[in-house]
Amino acid sequence: MQEKSTIIEQLRQWSVRLKTGLQTLYLCGKHPETPRLAKTIAIIVVVYALSPIDLIPDFIPVIGYLDDLLLVPAGIWLAIHLIPDPIWQACREEALRHPMQLPINRTAAIFVVIFWLIILALLLWLWLEPDSAASL
Questions:
Q1: pLDDT digit of tens for each residue in the chain (136 aa)?
Q2: Which of 5, 29, 52, 69 has the greatest number of CB atoms lying within 10 Å of its CB?
Q3: DSSP states along 13-60
């Protein structure tokens, strides 16, 4: 039983680190000295992590959760390596000092929904019109 509680505690700690990492990326994305590429990747990772729509839907067994378990941490890792260390440390300290709820941005939510609807429509069009796919 103690082994099970250890695993649960490790998952809880990982979750806290992930939340802090996302908040730090959010702050780095707003920081004026963050390089443009790092800022873009940081914003994409935060939006993807918070998006209710996944690249691979969660209802697909095993594979559905792999994008959350691999893509988000990989995106955080990439962004961390592109952000200058002093900026990362300053934003991380701010995230640890003042944990916050990320703001709700309805415009971004609408953009994400429209983006995924366009992707879905394109996939349906390609699936229903196999001859059209060959011409692409």
A1: 567 678 888 878 887 888 888 899 999 999 999 999 999 999 988 888 877 666 666 667 777 777 777 888 888 899 999 999 999 999 999 999 988 765 667 777 787 778 878 888 888 888 887 665 555 5
A2: 29
A3: HHHHHHHHHHHHHHHHHH-TTS-HHHHHHHHHHHHHHH-SS-SS-TTS
The sign of the torsion formed by the CA atoms of 102, 21, 6, 51 equals: positive
Report whether 68 contacts 51 (CB < 8 A). Answer: no
Q: Give the pair of three-digit tokens for residue 101.
A: 């709820």
Residues listed for the chain: 136
Residues 6+ apart with CB under 8 A from 78: 41, 45
Q: How far apart (Å, rounded) are the C-alpha atoms in residues 27 and 81?
A: 15
CA separation for the pair 99, 23 (Å, rounded) = 8
87 touches 34 (CB < 8 A): yes
